[in-house]
Write a structure and sequence with these properties.
The chain is of the alpha/beta class. It is built from six helices and eleven strands. The strands form three sheets. It has a seven-stranded mixed beta sheet with strand order 7-6-5-8-9-11-10, sandwiched between helices. A two-stranded antiparallel ribbon has the order 1-2.
Length: about 230
């Protein structure tokens, strides 16, 4: 900590907007964004973002959209695409800190989020409680194998709608092939990589789903990157 003090002081002096500073420590030689532990160097262990009607707490190792203005528009497109009546059971796969789950909760009967990163799940649970949302539940799950192994808790009903928002690599083949077996009426696939979404879409359409619409959201202006929200229906 003492060795980092000059760096911390220099950054705080140069960048007045800094609210938190965390040292993410990984003692092994590996290409990993997630360290073994964290040291809080300055401020609070989480940062806050306001998106829509919700206030979101975000830990250092948790994922959140970097462009919050466009992030809000993205979530609105997800809600509009899902077209919920208030009676649906919704699965939010790769739910992260629960921001999509919270956005969907007022429009659904029940929302179940699934995520592998523990810090994100802890944030999701805290965010639901903080925002007074009582119809969402979160589960730790490695989605590469979770449904394939039949690990779905007995108290969780089958979904009417599934939201998937995987990383750039897209869905694992196990999940892509198992997803149609959930027999959801709708799948809303949110992707930051149209190439892997196209690959996964082929498997979904071969298993009884039809693409009804795709919406593009420009999350990163002046770059080639785009976010795609695609609706699949039975």
């Amino acid at each position: 900590m003492d060795k980092l003090s000059p760096l911390v002081d220099g950054l705080l002096n140069d960048i007045s907007e800094i609210t938190s500073m965390v040292n993410n420590v990984n003692t092994r030689k590996a290409d990993s964004a997630f360290g073994e532990y964290e040291i809080l160097l300055y401020g609070q262990p989480t940062v806050k973002e306001n998106i829509g009607n919700f206030t979101i707490d975000i830990s250092a190792n948790s994922f959140f959209q970097t462009n919050t203005i466009q992030g809000e528009k993205l979530y609105e497109q997800i809600v509009n695409t899902a077209r919920l009546s208030g009676e649906e059971v919704v699965y939010d796969l790769y739910c992260g800190i629960g921001s999509i789950s919270l956005y969907l909760a007022p429009h659904a009967k029940k929302v179940y989020g699934f995520e592998i990163i523990r810090s994100s799940l802890e944030d999701a649970e805290k965010n639901a409680e903080k925002n007074g949302v009582s119809n969402v539940w979160f589960f730790k799950a490695n989605l590469d194998t979770y449904f394939k192994k039949g690990q779905l808790p007995k108290r969780v009903p089958k979904p009417n709608v599934v939201i998937v928002d995987p990383p750039r690599a897209g869905m694992h083949p196990h999940l892509t092939h198992y997803l149609p077996k959930l027999k959801a009426d709708k799948i809303v696939y949110v992707s930051c990589n149209p190439t892997t979404q196209a690959r996964d879409s082929r498997i979904l359409t071969e298993n009884g789903y039809t693409i009804r619409r795709s919406i593009l959201v420009d999350m990163f202006p002046h770059t080639p990157h785009i976010e795609v929200v695609t609706l699949f229906e039975k």
